[in-house]
Amino acid sequence: MNAGMFPSTGSAPCDSNMSRLKFCANISWLYTELPDLTQRICAAASDGFKAVEAAWPYDTKIEHIQRARNDNGVKVVLINTPPGDMKAGDLGLAAVPGREAEFRQGLQLALKYANALDCKRIHLMAGRVPVGSDRAEVASEMESTFVQNLQYAADVLMKEGVTGLIEPINTRITDPRYFLDSPHHAAAVIEKVGKPNIKLQMDVFHWQIMDGNLTQNVKKYFPLIGHIQIAQVPGRNEPDSAGELKYQYLFSLLESMGYTEYIGCEYKPLGSTSESLGWFRDYMTASK
Prior knowledge:
- The chain is of the alpha/beta class and 288 residues long.
- It has nine helices and eight strands.
- The protein has helices at 37-46, 62-72, 100-117, 135-158, 183-193, 204-210, 214-221, 247-256, 278-286, and strands spanning 22-26, 51-54, 75-80, 121-123, 163-166, 198-203, 225-230, 262-265.
- The protein has an eight-stranded parallel barrel, surrounded by five helices.
- It is globular and about 50 Å long.
């Protein structure tokens, strides 16, 4: 880990014309040394996070998460729709033909949790190309299913003041069969959906692996971005670990563009979670 990513002396990474960035702990990736989501919320708060996000909170009772959130004074800012049957290979259902009813059921469960936790963003997971199918042959049908499901979800979420997000996941390393795999594809889908509350979830890790060109892609798609997640490439570890990306530059870029939504810390700590947060403490100190 590189110490002093944002030195507390000298120039701070943001000035009066820039937005100070807000970070949330992804408690599905961080604090996994603790078995329970409620314990992880407490640990995140102890380390200075004011917000958390979670992939699938559905194995924990809503009232337990509510209590942990309230007791620790943190927000829950993002959850995912249920993945489907992961043992059978599912990872989301929104783009999977023939699974529309299950997608809607999952959406209702996600919305139940979101409303109870005052969470205003739900990642609507696209899902995978079916085993044995050729991506090119099923792409048109899957995209049509995706657009229709997103239009349905947008109308449901609009009534509750919730934003739906779609996230490209890289198919080179992480998930070769995931349907939505690039920011360009996601932007085209969002245009077809045509709903103002369907936004783009930018996971820097996936964008770098699939396309690189981060500066230009951030600038191009900035109006569509509703949430960002971060990790170093290629190891998917903390931002200041060894790797391809210079997060000090990326954070300054986002500040200069006026990004005001949360940035999710979705990475695998090399050691304990608290030990991996030197970059976070540096940033918060330098931003004061």
